[in-house]
């Protein structure tokens, strides 16, 4: 049986929906009739960490903001915390914090929105990995390659821009890049971190993010990190993808609960990755959303 054909990205993507303002309005509207108990902030975490998952992978410093209630919302940035969270926010309805603009910055804001959205949307398809940390790292990379293959198959062979499908990765990691190359894709990569630009990761030389538009125009699929939401570059990336009919996949560490919203507004696939917790010992689950129309 053939895969269901879906609309091409040039018809499906709604780039203006991928701003924090649009997402906040949508989340507060959807949650307006729900009681405060599910949204009462019990903790707000600032986690500063440096990670290299396996030898040959990039070393990267991150700050994770985690807004916790019954569930949690998360956002990750490359910077360190600028000031401590206001302790008076703990115990308050996070929807009121958003409405009153009492967050420190857009990374805080994203984590709070992510928390709200997690209470009002479907959870997606779940895949659980119960292996060693190194095996989970490899399995996650294969999952990206599998989903990329599915997106392009559903798009249709007639829609390919070149004979050898081209995948562009905005936010480079060695494992995903090397696995995509091993599957036979042409692969390009960019990153915002100057420490990574010019390096060879997984067989691909990482370029500066100023090259994104050129690569997106040429690519059949772009894999985008969720960090583009708080830094404000997400809509412009999607505008380019829409203009050049480039399929999209989001790696949602930042905004782990936003998959249903993204898919409903035109993203082909969202992989929700609970990093850095995914790298801890023991089983871990990744959730997947796929666009259906």
Characterise this structure.
The chain is built from nine helices and 13 strands. With 293 residues, the chain is α/β, with parallel strands linked by helices. It folds into two domains: 9-15 and 124-290, Rossmann fold; 17-118, Enolase-like, domain 1, CATH 3.30.390. A hairpin with a 2-residue loop joins strand 7 and strand 8. It starts with 8 loop residues before the first helix and ends with a strand.
Give the percentage of residues in beta strands: 15-25%
The CATH architecture of the largest domain is: 3-Layer(aba) Sandwich
Structural class per helix/strand content? alpha/beta
- What order do the helices and strands follow? HHEEEHHEHEHEEEEHEHEHEE
Distance between the termini: 18 Å
What's the Cα radius of gyration?
18 Å
CATH class of the largest domain: Alpha Beta
Helical content band: 25-40%
Largest sheet: 8 strands, mixed
List keywords for this structure.
single chain; 293 residues; alpha/beta; Rossmann fold; Enolase-like, domain 1; 2 domains; eight-stranded mixed sheet; three-stranded antiparallel sheet; 9 helices; 23% strand; globular
Please outline what is shown here:
Helices cover 31% and strands 23% of the residues.
Secondary structure: elements and pairs:
Layout: H1 9-12, H2 20-31, E1 43-51, E2 60-68, E3 72-77, H3 94-99, H4 106-118, E4 125-129, H5 133-155, E5 166-170, H6 174-182, E6 186-191, E7 200-201, E8 204-205, E9 207-208, H7 212-218, E10 221-225, H8 234-243, E11 247-252, H9 259-264, E12 269-272, E13 284-290
Parallel strand pairs: 5-6, 5-10, 6-9, 10-11, 11-12
Antiparallel strand pairs: 1-2, 2-3, 4-13, 7-8, 12-13
